[in-house]
Design a protein that fits this description.
alpha+beta
Length: 752
C-alpha cells in the first residue's frame, strides 16, 4: 500500500498555496537573475580567456622617448629574456562632436588583433573604425562622421581591441572611461598623415618562452625592464599581468560571479529560516496528528522526510524554472549589462555546470540542512507529548512576571513578543539583510556624485601639465613643480602607482607646511593604507627595485588621490636630479605657448572625475535594481513571518473575539505589536547597515587603484526606514484581513 503521508502533500500544498506561490515566484526570480548573470559571466569569461590566444594579446608594452631603430630593437629582443617586439604606435586626438579623446592605432595584424563587432575595418584614408563601447556612449553610429583634430572621417564599423577590453587611458587611472576616452583603427597612410603631435612610440612584446605563472611573469618583466632601460630610457613599462586595460574586465567578471553567488546564498539562508519557522508552526498545529502517526508506528525519520518534501519540492521547481529563465531572458539582461561597461569581443553562450551547482544544488543543500536541523529538534519529542500538545522540550517555566502597573493591552503585547521571539529575531535579521540591499541601491549614486564633488573641490589646479622636457612658459600664474611615479610597498594590498610631487616652498597651489626633512601624503593614501602622521612611508621605483623611505609629517586634504608631496629641493636631492629641474606646471588657465610635442600629459577635471562618471554609466540600471530587490525582499520576509505570528496565535485571536474584542482592538494587540518590532528593527538596523556597508565598500574598492571615500548622505538614513514603514503599511493592511478571517470556533479546537 502506498504511504498515506504522500497523499497529504498535495493537500498541504493547496492549503498554503498563497504562501508557496509567493515564495516560488520570489525564489524563481532570484535564482533566474543569478543564473543569468553566472551563465553570461561564465560564457564571457571563457571568451575572454580564449581571446589571449585567439587575438594574440601582448605580454606587455613599453614606451620610449623616440623611435627605436632596427639595431635597438635587435638588442632588446636578444637580452636575457628573449622576446619578439612589435611596433604599436598610437596618436591621440580630441573630437569635435563630443568632449572626448580618441587613441588612434594602425590596423594590427600580428599582435593585439581586432574583433569587428559591426560593419568593417577602414579601407580608405577618410574612414575609421571606433570602439563599440565608446561609440554607444557617445551616440556614434556606423555611417556617421567623426572629426578628429582637423580630419573628418566616416565611421565604417564598431570594433573591440583585445588589449582595451576596459578603456583605461593611463595605467595609473583609478577607473576606465568609456565616455570621454575611446580607441580607434585607421589605415596606415592616414595614421602617418596625422604627424608626430601626441605620437607615442609604444612597443608590444611577446616572450619566446611564456611565463609559467604570475611570479615567473613578474621576474621576467623586471629583468626585461632593466634590460630595456639600459639600452634606451623608458617612459612607460606595463607588463600584461598588471595592465588594467587587459585584466580589469576578466577580474571584474569573475569577481561578480563570486559576489552574486554569495548574495544568493545569504538570501537562501533567510528563505530557509522562513520555511523552517512556517514548518514549525505547521507542526504545532498538527501536533495531535503527529502524535497519532507516531503512536501508529510511523518513525521520526518518515515524518522528517514528509515535512521536508514540500519546501524541497518548491525550491527544486523554482530552481529549475529559474535556470530556464536564466539561460533565456535573464541571460540577455546580464549580457547587456556587461556589454554596457566593457569593450568585449563576441561570445557564445555555453553550458555552465558551476552555475547550475551554485543556483540549484547549493540552495537545496542550504534549505535541506537548516530545515533538517529544525525538524529533528521539533520531532524529537515522544508521541505522548504530541498527543497532549505539550511541545516544550523542558519543564514549562513560570511565565515572566510583568508589572501590574503596566496596562493590560501593553502587557498583552509584551506576551505576544515573548511568545514569538524566534519569529521576531528572524524578522530583525531579514530587515537587516534587506536594508543592506536598499542602502546599497539608494546610496551608490550619491556616493559617486559626492566623490566627484570632492575631487573638483580638492583639485590642486584646473590644469596640471606634465612635460617631456623642462620648457618655460609665460602664462601668468603658472607654477613649476616636479612630478614622478613610484609604486606602493604593502603586504596586504596590491601594488599601485603613487604620484610623487616636488612642490615649491610657499606654493600658491599646494598649501601645506612641507619641510625638506619629511613628506605629506594625500588623505586617500592615508585612509587606504592606514598610514598616519609620524609613520614611515616606503615606496619603490616604478622601473627598478630601489626603495625609498620617508617620514610622514602631515596629511594633505586630497581624499581621492594616492599621492606624496615633498619640497622640490628634496625631490631633486632624493632622485639625484639637476638643480632647478622641473617637469610640470600647475595653472588655473590653459597654457598655450608650449607645443603639444613637449607635453606628456594634461590633467583636467574630466580626467579626475572619470571614476564616478564611468561607474554611474556602468551601474546605473543595477543600482535601481538593487533598491527594488531590497524592498521586495523586505515585504516578503515581513509578510511571511508576520503571517506566522497570526497563525500561531489564531486560537488566542478567536478567544478575544468571543470575549467581545472587535477587529480594530485585536489588530492593536497583534498587528501593532509586530509593527513596533518592525519599526524598532528598521531603526536598529540603520547603524549596523552603515558599519557593514562601510567595510564592504572598503574591501571592494581596496582592489581598485586610487581611493573612493565612503560617504552616505544623511537623508538616506531617513529614506530607508521610511521606505520600510511604507512597505510594511501595505503588509499590515493584508494582515488585518487575515485577522478578520480568523473564525470564532477556532478557540474551541484543540482545547487541552
Amino acid at each position: 500500500m502506498k504511504n498515506p503521508l504522500i497523499k497529504r502533500l498535495p493537500r498541504e500544498l493547496k492549503g498554503e498555496i498563497g504562501k508557496y506561490i509567493v515564495l516560488f515566484l520570489f525564489i524563481t526570480m532570484m535564482i533566474g537573475i543569478v543564473s543569468g548573470f553566472l551563465v553570461a559571466a561564465g560564457s564571457m569569461a571563457t571568451a575572454y580567456d580564449e581571446s589571449f590566444e585567439k587575438y594574440n594579446i601582448e605580454q606587455g608594452n613599453f614606451e620610449l622617448l623616440q623611435k627605436a631603430d632596427d639595431e635597438t630593437i635587435k638588442k632588446i629582443e636578444d637580452g636575457k629574456e628573449k622576446v619578439k617586439v612589435y611596433e604599436n604606435f598610437y596618436i591621440e586626438r580630441e573630437t569635435k562632436e563630443v568632449d572626448s579623446t580618441v587613441r588612434i592605432f594602425k590596423n594590427r595584424k600580428d599582435i593585439d588583433k581586432i574583433c569587428v563587432m559591426e560593419g568593417e575595418l577602414p579601407a580608405t584614408d577618410d574612414e575609421i573604425a571606433i570602439d563599440r563601447m565608446y561609440a554607444v556612449n557617445n551616440d556614434y553610429k556606423v555611417g556617421d562622421n567623426i572629426t578628429l583634430g582637423d580630419k573628418k572621417l566616416k565611421v565604417t564599423g564598431y570594433v573591440a581591441l583585445s588589449d582595451y577590453s576596459a578603456l583605461y587611458s593611463n595605467p595609473s587611472d583609478t577607473m576606465f572611461d568609456s565616455v570621454k576616452f575611446g580607441v580607434a583603427i585607421v589605415t596606415d597612410s592616414l595614421f602617418d598623415e596625422f604627424g608626430e603631435t601626441n605620437l607615442h612610440y609604444s612597443y608590444s612584446w611577446k616572450y619566446d618562452k611564456a611565463p609559467v605563472d604570475d611570479k615567473d611573469a613578474q621576474d621576467k618583466a623586471e629583468e626585461l625592464m632593466k634590460h630595456i632601460n639600459s639600452i634606451s630610457p623608458l617612459t612607460q613599462f606595463i607588463p600584461e599581468y598588471s595592465n588594467q586595460a587587459i585584466h580589469f574586465t576578466g577580474d571584474d567578471i569573475k569577481g561578480d560571479s563570486t559576489m552574486i553567488a554569495v548574495f544568493l546564498y545569504l538570501f537562501m539562508v533567510i528563505i530557509a529560516f522562513i520555511f523552517a519557522i512556517t514548518t514549525g508552526n505547521t507542526i504545532a498545529k498538527e501536533a495531535n496528528v503527529i502524535g497519532t502517526l507516531r503512536a501508529s508506528g510511523y518513525t521520526k525519520a518518515e515524518l522528517v522526510r514528509h515535512y521536508l518534501a514540500t519546501p524541497m519540492f518548491v525550491v527544486l521547481v523554482a530552481a529549475v524554472v529559474g535556470n530556464i529563465l536564466g539561460y533565456t531572458c535573464f541571460k540577455d539582461f546580464a549580457v547587456s549589462a556587461y556589454y554596457g561597461s566593457y569593450s568585449l569581443p563576441t561570445y557564445v553562450t555555453i553550458w555552465n555546470a558551476e552555475a547550475f551547482v551554485k543556483t540549484t544544488v547549493v540552495p537545496l543543500i542550504i534549505l535541506f540542512l537548516i530545515n533538517l536541523i529544525m525538524l529533528i529538534n521539533k520531532l524529537s519529542l515522544s508521541p505522548l507529548k504530541f498527543l497532549r500538545r505539550d511541545l516544550k522540550k523542558h519543564q514549562k517555566k513560570k511565565a515572566f512576571k510583568l508589572n501590574t502597573k503596566i496596562g493590560i493591552l501593553k502587557r498583552f503585547r509584551l506576551r505576544v513578543v515573548f511568545q514569538n521571539i524566534p519569529n521576531y529575531v528572524t524578522i530583525f535579521v531579514g530587515v537587516l539583510f534587506a536594508s543592506v540591499i536598499i542602502f546599497f541601491g539608494l546610496a551608490m549614486k550619491p556616493m559617486l556624485l559626492h566623490y566627484q564633488e570632492v575631487i573638483e573641490d580638492n583639485m590642486i589646479a584646473k590644469y596640471q601639465y606634465v612635460l617631456k622636457a623642462p620648457i618655460e612658459t609665460e602664462t601668468k600664474g603658472a607654477e613649476k613643480y616636479c612630478a614622478g611615479s613610484m609604486k606602493t610597498v604593502d603586504d596586504k594590498l596590491k601594488e599601485e602607482n603613487v604620484t610623487v610631487y616636488g612642490i615649491q616652498k610657499d606654493s600658491k597651489f599646494v598649501k601645506a607646511d612641507i619641510t625638506d626633512d619629511g613628506v605629506y601624503i594625500s588623505d586617500g593614501y592615508s585612509q587606504k593604507f592606514g598610514i598616519d602622521v609620524g609613520d614611515e612611508l616606503t615606496m619603490k621605483e616604478s622601473y627598478g627595485d630601489k626603495k625609498y623611505t620617508f617620514k610622514v609629517d602631515g596629511v594633505y586634504d586630497e581624499p581621492a588621490a594616492i599621492a606624496v608631496y615633498m619640497t622640490d629641493d628634496n625631490f631633486i636631492k632624493t632622485f639625484d636630479l639637476d638643480d632647478g629641474y622641473f617637469n610640470g606646471y600647475f595653472s588655473n588657465t590653459k597654457i598655450k605657448d608650449i607645443d603639444d610635442l613637449y607635453i606628456a600629459t594634461t590633467i583636467t577635471k574630466d580626467d579626475m572625475t572619470k571614476t564616478s562618471r564611468q561607474l554611474i554609466v556602468s551601474m546605473g540600471s543595477m543600482i535601481s535594481a538593487f533598491a527594488g530587490a531590497g524592498i521586495i525582499s523586505f515585504m516578503l520576509i515581513i509578510y511571511l513571518l508576520s503571517k506566522v505570528v497570526i497563525e500561531k496565535n489564531s486560537q488566542s485571536i478567536s478567544m478575544t473575539k468571543i470575549l467581545g474584542y472587535n477587529n480594530r482592538e485585536i489588530n492593536s494587540l497583534y498587528i501593532t505589536t509586530t509593527s513596533i518590532v518592525v519599526i524598532v528593527s528598521l531603526i536598529l538596523s540603520v547603524p549596523l547597515v552603515n558599519v557593514t556597508l562601510k567595510y564592504i565598500f572598503i574591501a571592494a574598492f581596496a582592489q581598485y587603484s586610487g581611493w573612493l571615500p565612503y560617504y552616505i548622505p544623511a537623508y538616506i538614513f531617513v529614506e530607508v526606514p521610511l521606505f520600510g514603514i511604507i512597505a510594511y503599511a501595505v503588509v499590515a493592511f493584508i494582515l488585518t484581513r487575515r485577522v478578520k478571517k480568523v473564525p470564532l470556533d477556532e478557540a474551541l479546537k484543540n482545547v487541552e
